[in-house]
Design goal:
The protein is an alpha/beta fold. Helix content is 35%, strand content 26%. The protein contains 9 helices and 10 strands. Helix 3 packs parallel to helix 6. The two termini are 33 Å apart. Bound molecules: adenosine-5'-triphosphate (ATP) and magnesium ion (MG). Adenosine-5'-triphosphate binds next to strand 2 and helix 1.
Length: 231
């Protein structure tokens, strides 16, 4: 569904991604792992188009999206739940969700009820300010805002960061539903190993802007974790 080939990117003179290639399959959760600062968020921004790769190719289905503007990528079916959530604190929950509608290609102007069914808490809090939600609730709002755009590919950048276990579990169940009911393609940047084992299908491990290991999520073993992930 989503393919990245030999992607490279530099912030000025600092090369941050070097020849990254990955395949994200429809109906699967593909996990991108790696220590702090290895380039995971930079990769997500290159996929969304807010950063421009210096070399390489990104395809969505059979479309080459490498040169496309971010808003066109969103309408082509990509959505990102950014690291740190980036909720608008002075807009209500409902207003935050409405922002997600801009990504739709069909011009729909009401919030699809099935998105709220995935996160019932957002229904009861629709008039609350985004900034007054707890961290876990904000994370759910950020995921819902991305889903309002009806994406084919959902990118999540460390959705479990700073979130307590029961909400992590709820988020995992939502991802599972998106895969089984909608056959969505999910790309999950994640450092929490148990979450990858429970909800992931495949993994890629990055180090210093390169892919250094990949395989089925079930095959992640202590050896690989020691070598590439533990600090
Ligand atoms: N705007 C920027 N200008 C220059 N360098 C940057 C910029 N943003 C990030 N970097 C650097 O690029 C490298 C990769 O950063 P990135 O945020 O992609 O890492 P990450 O894997 O997402 O880390 P984390 O796990 O902490 O979120 C880091 O060395 C970082 O300092
Ligand atoms: Mg990051």
């Amino acid at each position: 569904m989503l393919a990245i080939r030999e992607l490279s990117f530099s912030y000025g003179v600092v090369q941050t991604l070097s020849g990254v290639s990955m395949q994200m399959t429809r109906g699967q959760v593909t996990c991108v792992m790696g220590r702090n600062g290895v380039g995971k968020t930079t990769l997500m921004r290159n996929i969304m188009g807010t950063l421009r790769a210096s070399a390489g190719e990104i395809t969505l289905g059979d479309r080459d999206i490498t040169g496309m503007q971010p808003n066109r990528r969103a309408r082509a079916g990509l959505a990102l739940v950014p690291q740190g959530r980036q909720i608008f604190p002075r807009l209500t929950v409902e207003e935050n969700l409405r922002i997600g509608l801009q990504a739709r290609s069909d011009g729909r102007r009401d919030i699809p009820p099935d998105v709220l069914d995935l996160f019932p808490i957002l229904k009861t809090m629709s008039k609350r300010m985004g900034g007054d939600l707890s961290g876990g609730q904000q994370q759910q709002l950020a995921i819902a805002r991305a889903l309002v755009g009806d994406p084919k590919v959902l990118l999540l950048d460390e959705p479990t960061e700073g979130i307590q276990p029961n909400i992590i579990q709820q988020i995992g169940e939502v991802l599972r539903q998106l895969v089984s009911v909608r056959q969505m393609t999910i790309v999950l940047v994640e450092q929490y190993l148990d979450f990858v084992r429970d909800f992931g299908n495949r993994f890629y491990i990055m180090n210093r802007g390169r892919v250094v290991a990949d395989g089925p999520a079930a095959s992640l073993d202590a050896n690989m974790v020691n070598q590439h992930l533990s600090v």
